[in-house]
Amino acid sequence: VWSHVEELPPDAIFLTKTLFNKDPNPAKVNLGIGAYRTEEGNPYILKVVRKVEREILDDVKLDKEYAPICGEPQYVHACQSVIFGKDAPVLKEKRAAGAQSLSGTGALRVLCEFLKVNFANSKVYLSKPTWGNHTKILLKSHLEEGTYRYWNAKGRNLDIDGMLEDLSKARPGDIVLLHACAHNPTGVDPTLDQWKQIASLLKKNKLIPFFDTAYQGFATGDLDRDAAAIRLFEKEGFDFVVSQSFAKNMGLYSERAGCATVVSQDPKLVSACQSQLEAVIRPMYSNPPRYGAEIVKRVISSPENFKLWKEEMTYMSGRIIKMRQLLRQHLEALKTPGTWNHITDQIGMFSFTGLTGIKINTSSFFFNTASQVDVMISKHHIYMLKNGRISMAGVTTKNVEYLARAMDDVVKN
Ligand code: PMP
């Protein structure tokens, strides 16, 4: 019966995890997947999460009934208060529709379905490069993909001119997917001035912003600062959508807690948007899971828990920033050819190292040497993505020197 079913290649990011698990070398390091690790290289459960989990277990009033299709309104409100700020006018004026989602990916998918139904002919512009799943989600939602330049490989920074030029060619009603902070995979974000330029172009050309916020609190350690771009667009009077994830900033990778938000300047249009979100979700998975959302809601809506969360987020992002400094220091001490300031200039969970993943054709022998990334994996047992991205969250004081020496080796040889 299944003889015609074609075997597909495994997902690139999860493949690095499988290969890493199989590797018996004790020096191995996994910098593929974007998940926070402690100094000992272990997964981390936030103390505030453990605290509210105990409360949930003891709460006799909590049953296992279905949650509403779009999740509990109190949960959605809590999520949106993190994005816009507790006292934001958009919330007070009830100008945001929203639905609990299966983490950030689920929010992206639900919003893409919502956009496909209501803007069938719009293109969705993605940054070049972007998180690999963005393209796949658009494809499954039957939305047409456009791209805009983003990464300037030469300067290892933002190609703002290329970005604005490409977006100026989009048609009114087209959608622009923007990483709210800690751009994945480059770790390069626009400055506030550049965000203003982007906002002004989008407004002039009547484009619809689509913010993906998967790292709020991980870029600078400050939830408000990391939401500055979204809040700027809200102030500027856009109608837009936001996909939000608590996988990284609350360490809830497996709980799949997220939120899909549709902001409308006109409060009268919110219930129509809400009904459309519901219509997308009901035949897709019917109702969201309760547990992860209950954790998130209890962390955000208690001032004491919220404070504890922010402290732990500052700690996690601080550790990552420290690892960036150490990695750069080691590379510079080793006199590794090239410049390494981009390691500390970039922010968030990832660093786009500049190591090459494409095999180099050596002209004299017409002979393919292994790429730098191949050697990082096969010789040094350091697992990373083919595009040169490493997760800084997996770097520790114990492996940073080993990482620098491996990078030095592949760059020099
Ligand atoms: N957007 C971006 C840019 C991401 O990097 C990620 C996580 N890798 C997500 C969305 C969604 O992740 P999740 O579904 O685990 O919340």
Automatic annotation (TrEMBL):
Methyltransferase as UniProt keyword: no
Classification via InterPro entries: Aminotransferase_I/II_large, Asp_trans, PyrdxlP-dep_Trfase, PyrdxlP-dep_Trfase_major, PyrdxlP-dep_Trfase_small
GO biological process annotation, one example: amino acid metabolic process
Cofactor: pyridoxal 5'-phosphate
Keywords of the record: Aminotransferase, Pyridoxal phosphate, Transferase
GO cellular component, one term: mitochondrion
Gene3D superfamilies: Aspartate Aminotransferase, domain 1 (3.90.1150.10), Type I PLP-dependent aspartate aminotransferase-like (Major domain) (3.40.640.10)
GO molecular function: L-aspartate:2-oxoglutarate aminotransferase activity; pyridoxal phosphate binding
Residue ranges annotated for the Aminotransferase class I/classII large domain, each copy included: 28-406
Family, similarity comment: Belongs to the class-I pyridoxal-phosphate-dependent aminotransferase family.
Subunit details: Homodimer.
PANTHER family: ASPARTATE AMINOTRANSFERASE, ASPARTATE AMINOTRANSFERASE, MITOCHONDRIAL
Protein name: Aminotransferase, classes I and II family protein
Organism: Reticulomyxa filosa
